């Protein structure tokens, strides 16, 4: 495992653990970054347990930094850290360091974008461009929000603590958003390999922890089901040469049918509760995709109609247009797509190009593919779009 892989896999866990030990998010992040800098110089090869090495080194670096400071607060923090056991007993309803960190970063004193941007950076290990892509906003905006969030946590002395049971539901929406975005970045990464398995599995693990913590929240179960049903298709999503394989062309025998069965069971549990929400509806759509040898597009469209009612965003409308094309034809879908505005989102011109090609407007389709190719940041997705465009030339 190279250093970049270790960083992606361990950064979030280490920051969360150090925050529990130090009680200071900023100091924890700096200490972990220092530890990784030391690792770059010393590791050859990496130790058997890289995360434990980073945590131990970061803790020692934090103690050294506190010793150099002469304030009363620094001396008090140093004393606490020196006398803390290696594995302090966890208290409160949340038993997972990273899950507790997510709830902490999603404090109501922070704005919604600041909550999720800070958590994605600290816990998901996502870089600013990846977060900006998830929100379809400029990178500078994300960077500013992260800096302001850290400053507010410090200035307002927002504590790193486990929320009380009664506080958990109010903290839930941004927590669900964070887990959803971490999984999405893993499933279709901004750059590099198409799929980042480490992020997918970590988001899924945290979603399972959240479902164990809040088993009566339908949207928590819906998000877990959505991840399970999406993760189940991952083995068939990339071809033998690393190429992207769209859903309609995937070998369904490669899907993980145990995950599909678990996801379907969760969807049925959500349906019995009859409290539909966006994550439950997305899970239900994926349940239809994974039920039987072919997709029932009429049912998918009906579910997208409900989802658009709950979440009237251009991205949902774009995804719904794909179902419209299967049920009512590409011309009807194109009429929907032409009214959408998603600056910088490569899937809009990509979808438009596919619809134009299907109705024989090849010159316009080529131009739309060129736009999508220019906007795509992932090499695998860009290669897929280039291949589709080349079909028009031939």
Automatic annotation (TrEMBL):
Pfam family, one: DUF6596
Keywords: Sigma factor, Transcription, Transcription regulation
Transcription regulation keyword on record: yes
Domain RNA polymerase sigma-70 region, residue spans: 7-70
Transmembrane segments: none
Transcription regulation listed as a keyword: yes
Top-level taxon: Bacteria
Domain RNA polymerase sigma factor 70 region 4 type residue range list: 101-153
DUF6596 domain segment(s): 171-270
PANTHER family: BLL6612 PROTEIN, BLL6612 PROTEIN-RELATED
NCBIfam families associated with the record: sigma70-ECF (TIGR02937)
Sequence similarity: Belongs to the sigma-70 factor family. ECF subfamily.
Protein's UniProt name: RNA polymerase sigma factor
Species this chain originates from: Pseudonocardia adelaidensis
Species lineage: Bacteria, Bacillati, Actinomycetota, Actinomycetes, Pseudonocardiales
């Amino acid at each position: 495992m190279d250093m970049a892989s270790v960083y992606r896999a361990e950064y979030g866990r280490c920051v969360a653990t150090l925050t529990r030990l130090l009680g200071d998010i900023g100091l924890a992040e700096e200490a972990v970054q220092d530890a990784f800098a030391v690792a770059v110089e010393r590791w050859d090869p990496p130790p058997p347990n890289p995360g434990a090495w980073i945590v131990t080194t970061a803790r020692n670096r934090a103690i050294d930094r506190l010793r150099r400071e002469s304030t009363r607060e620094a001396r008090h923090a140093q004393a606490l850290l020196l006398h803390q056991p290696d594995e302090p007993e966890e208290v409160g309803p949340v038993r997972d360091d990273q899950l507790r960190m997510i709830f902490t970063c999603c404090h109501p004193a922070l704005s919604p974008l600041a909550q999720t941007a800070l958590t994605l950076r600290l816990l998901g290990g996502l870089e600013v461009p990846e977060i900006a892509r998830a929100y379809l906003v400029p990178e500078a905006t994300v960077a500013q929000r992260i800096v302001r969030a850290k400053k507010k946590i410090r200035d307002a002395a927002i504590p790193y603590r486990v929320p009380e049971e009664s506080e958990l539901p109010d903290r839930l929406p941004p927590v669900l958003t964070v887990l959803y975005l971490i999984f999405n970045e893993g499933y279709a990464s901004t750059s590099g390999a198409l799929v980042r398995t480490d992020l997918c599995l970590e988001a899924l693990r945290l979603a399972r922890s959240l479902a164990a913590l809040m088993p009566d929240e339908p949207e928590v179960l819906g998000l877990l089901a959505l991840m399970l049903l999406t993760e189940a298709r991952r083995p068939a999503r990339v071809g033998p040469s690393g190429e992207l394989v769209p859903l309609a062309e995937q070998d369904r025998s490669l899907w993980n049918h145990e995950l599909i069965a678990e996801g379907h069971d969760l969807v049925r549990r959500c349906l019995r509760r009859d409290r539909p929400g966006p994550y439950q509806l997305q899970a239900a759509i994926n349940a239809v995709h994974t039920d039987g040898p072919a997709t029932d597009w009429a049912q998918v469209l009906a579910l997208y109609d409900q989802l658009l009612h709950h979440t009237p965003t251009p991205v949902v409308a774009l995804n719904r247009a794909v179902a419209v094309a299967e049920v009512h034809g590409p011309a009807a879908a194109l009429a929907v797509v032409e009214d959408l505005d998603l600056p910088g989102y490569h899937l809009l011109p990509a979808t438009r190009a596919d619809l134009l090609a299907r109705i024989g407007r090849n010159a316009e389709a080529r131009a739309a593919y060129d736009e999508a190719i220019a906007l795509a940041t992932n090499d695998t997705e860009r290669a897929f779009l280039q291949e589709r465009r080349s079909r028009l030339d031939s």
